[in-house]
Amino acid sequence: MPVYAKPDGRIFCVYYNGRQRVWEPFGRGDDARAAAEVRDLEIKLKKKRGQWQAMAPVNPLTFEDLTQSYIDAKSRELSRNSRQGILYTYKTYARPVIGNKPLTSITLDDWQKIQQGMIQRKIKNRTINTYFKYLSGILTWAIEENEDLLHEHPWHKRKPLKVRDSFKVELFTVEEFQGILAHAEPHLAWCLDLAYHTGVRPGPTELFSLMWSHIDWEKKRIQIPSTKTSNLFRWQYPDPGFMKRLRAKEKKMQKGYPDCPYICSYKGRQIKSLKTAWRTAKEKAGITRRIRLYDIRHFFITYALAGGAPINELAERVGHINPRMIVEVYSHLAQDLKERRAFSLPKLITKRSCGRHSPQTLKTVDKTVNTRKGRPKKTA
Which among 311, 282, 250 has a CA at the least distance from the CA of 172? Predict the structure, then answer.
């Protein structure tokens, strides 16, 4: 196809320069398509008149060029965290090894060098596997978008590193959390209450960024920004009791600090961190073991799962990319919370429990037999 439009809207004029297939870019939009069509007619006319001469070989695409093209094309699909993760992995580990290397000359040995750099920095196996997915996804995209750029994935034989450092979650008790609440400063106690009833990530990306405008009072739900999924936001539905407290808090804020849009605030300003207030409340409550703010989110997910929340819906509400993590990390904790009792099964009716063999009818059967033998029937 002489003029070709990529899925991201970029227009190319495609032609052969000797044996090399060239993709000449013209940008996006109707003007770009018109310019590409003019270029196509020009090339065809020169070839017909015998005036076409092969040009010097086009500089091969490097991994750095491909990475930038990938980020531009996926800008609307990637979450902010994914985008930052890809750029960090490329700049820190990949660029020194393959940044200026042509795609066709990248080999599995290059990945081994990149991985070795990660190991030297004592990066955990689970994280190395994640970084590999970031870089490998760029090469996969090159193959899917344009096979002329790359015919085969150079790292397809790479095997994931074994993950021995399993992800463990230890829940705090309700008594411990109540103790922290009792000794917490008012702004901390309010943030803990909000995190407890929404399961948000307790930090600047979610909890501290929540605004009063994010609340849908009619449908009794809160809009929470999604930082690790392709969706811009998700909805959470707290219980009615908390929604009443939330409404009362909003009215109080409107009187004292009407210009403050944030739900979590201190003296009319957005809260940036709770580490010091959290540590102080823990010490006053006499809690010495390790309990983090993030454990509130673990608590929410575990008890929601134990209460029968559907896994897919729960994953969506708490902003997990893959529901599988809910199963792998929280299912055993939720199982420990459930009351051990018999499973609910349909009631069965068997021959032993009905008919003439039923214990309830044996006495009646005996009376009938005696009557048939001619013995007088007893009367009341």
Answer: 282
Which value, to the nearest 10 degrees, does the dihedral of the CA atoms of residues 80, 84, 85, 86 take? 110
Question: Is the predicted pLDDT of residue 85 greater than 70, yes or no?
Answer: yes
What tokens were used for 3? 């003029």
Domain that holds residue 100: 63-145
Joined tokens for residue 256: 């004292």
| Two tokens, residue 73 | 């094309």
pTM to 2 decimals? 0.55
Torsional sign, CA 167, 168, 171, 172: negative
**Mean of all residue pLDDT scores within the chain:** 83
Tens digits of per-residue pLDDT, 171-201? 899 999 999 999 999 999 999 999 999 999 9
What domain count does the chain have?
3
The H or E element spanning position 43 is helix 30-49
Q: Domain check: are 111 and 239 in the same one?
A: no
Q: Which sign, positive or negative, has the C-alpha torsion 81, 131, 129, 290?
A: negative
Task: Determine the residue type at 149.
Answer: L
Whether 292 is covered by a domain: the verdict is: yes
User: What's the rounded Cα separation, in Å, for the pair 162 and 364?
Assistant: 71
Q: For the chain, how many residues are written?
A: 380
Do residues 332 and 241 share a domain? yes
- In a shared domain, residues 205 and 316: yes
CATH code of the domain containing 132: 1.10.150
CB burial string 248-261: b at 16+ within 10 A, e below? eeeeebeeeeeebe
Q: What's the CA gap between 9 and 58, in Å, rounded?
A: 23
The structure tokens listed for 111 are 């990945």
Strand partners, 15: 22
